[in-house]
Every structure is written in C-alpha cells, then in structure tokens.
Design a protein that fits this description.
With about 290 residues, this protein is mostly helical. It contains 15 helices and no strands. About 70% of the residues lie in helices and about 0% in strands. The chain is globular and about 70 Å long.
Length: about 290
C-alpha cells in the first residue's frame, strides 16, 4: 500500500504558509527572553547607550559580554542560598505531590468503595475554589502547628492537588484490564501493582505533573512571604522580589537575577518536553 502524500506535497503553498507562521510566532515568543539575555550581559552604561528593540540591530547586543553581572548577583545578594532553598522546597513538595497523586488516582480508578464517585466529584469541585480563598485557612493551620518559618510549613499544604489526581486517574483508566489481571494472578498487592504497572506506564503524565508542580513551587511568592518570616527558608522568588526593589535602575543586574531564577524551570522543561507533549496529545483524545 502506497504511503499517503505529505501535506507539503499536496499543497506546498499552504504548508509553507504554516511553517512561516510558526517560525514568526516562535520568534515573537522568544524575543523577550532574548532581550533579557542581551541586557543581562551589558554594562550599566550600555543599558542606556546601546538600546534597541530590534535583535538584528548591533545596539541590541552588548559590545562585550559582562559575565560578572551573574557573579555579582550570585555572590553579593545571597542568590546561592535562595536558590538552594527553592530547590529543596520544590523537591520535597514534588515528592509529596507525586506520592499522594499516584495513590489517590489509583484508588479512584481501580478500587471499588462506597461513595467513590461522590468523593471524586467533591475533589473536582475544589478546582473551582480560588487559591486566595485557601490562603488564610492554610496560614492559621500552619501557625497553630508551629510550622511558621519551617520547611513543612512551605511544603505540606501543597502536597496534594486535585488536578494531578484527576489527570493520573484518566490515564490509569486507560491501562488494559489484562495487565491488572495478570498482576493479580501473580499475587501482586495493590502497592506492587502501583510500582510495577501503574508508574512505568504513566511516565508522560508524571513528567507533566512534575513540571507543573515544579513551576508552581518555584514561582510561588505569596505563601513564602507569609510563612518564611526570616531568611532561614526564603526561596528565590522572595529573594528576586527583594532584589528588584533594592537594585533600582540597574537593568543588567535585574535581568541577570531573573535569568538565574528562570534557568531551572527551562532546563526541566527541555528534559521533559517530549513526555509533556505526548501527554497533552493523549489527554485530548480520551473521553
């Protein structure tokens, strides 16, 4: 059977138009990031004298890169400490989210118990509650437990998410019933079934959840401002906000600090991009 002709062969004009639109859209989306990189490598004087919004203009770029801007931000403004705090907070939160989401999603997808559908509907209903509504109750609970300015206070309230449970449940329901029957015949417990069947077959959804939770934890500002009342556990989002208010018009240092805060999220997305794209495509096809 002959292969179907590609869209480019069938209609080269339309295909070129689509490619051109995608290239232009990508250029527009990346332009702010490129501007940030260019200004982070300029001296303070060049941010004023060499200024242009056109990336093809030589004035858009620094005459010679000032890598010392990153060194100054990292060493002089405790960004290394903030970076470490954010890494620990994000890692602990992510571990908690994955643990609770996998077990809860498996229970809603595979186990039969009274009130399962009602509980799942209530869980989905929490998605409609604005985050700002839960800030005060969470703060009162954390304060009563004595968790202010501690790692548990910054992580435990976010170790479960309705969307993560919902997404994983949908993918677990797509796993063939024969695999669960085979695991049951082999005498596998629910825990072993989760570890040996559910987790290996849901790498894409797990990477997607990891990226979303990592981004949310890394960018969180309101909650750390309330709970982290001393520099002991302040994350990089708080450090960046403080840095922006103290540096004044030093654009090159502001852009360098922003890039340092942005790099981990970009790197993780590049690593998990394939799995995230596959998850989004499959989630759009299922019922």
């Amino acid at each position: 059977m002959a292969d179907r002709p590609s869209s480019f062969r069938r209609d080269p004009g339309t295909a070129l138009l689509r490619f051109g639109f995608l290239i232009f859209s990508g250029f527009v989306a990346l332009l702010p990031l490129v501007w940030m990189i260019a200004n982070s490598l300029k001296s303070n004087a060049e941010t004023i004298t060499r200024n242009s919004s056109n990336p093809f203009d030589p004035l858009f770029w620094p005459s010679s890169p000032f890598w010392s801007n990153f060194v100054q931000v990292w060493l002089d403004d405790d960004f290394g400490q903030y970076f470490f705090h954010s890494f620990v907070i994000a890692a602990v939160t992510l571990a908690g989210v994955l643990f609770t989401s996998i077990l809860a999603a498996y229970a809603f997808a595979r186990l039969r118990f009274a009130g399962r559908e009602v509980l799942f509907s209530l869980l989905l209903a929490t998605l409609m509650i604005p985050e700002v509504v839960t800030v005060l109750p969470n703060f009162l609970v954390v304060s009563a437990l004595g968790w202010l300015d501690t790692l548990p206070g910054l992580t435990v309230p976010f170790m479960a998410g309705a969307f993560s449970i919902f997404l994983l449940r949908q993918f677990i329901k797509q796993i063939p019933e024969a695999l669960f029957d085979a695991a049951q015949i082999d005498g596998a417990s629910h825990w072993r079934t989760v570890v040996n069947v559910v987790v290996p077959l849901n790498g894409g959804p797990l990477f997607t959840i990891a990226f979303l939770e990592l981004t949310a934890s890394w960018n969180s500002l309101q909650w750390p401002l309330l709970v982290a009342q001393t520099p002991r556990w302040r994350p990089i989002s708080v450090g960046l906000a403080r840095f922006m208010s103290e540096t004044g018009p030093q654009i090159e240092l502001r852009m360098a600090a922003s890039l340092i805060a942005l790099i981990p999220v970009v790197v993780f997305f590049l690593i998990a991009q394939k799995q995230i794209n596959e998850t989004l495509m499959k989630s759009g096809l299922q019922e």
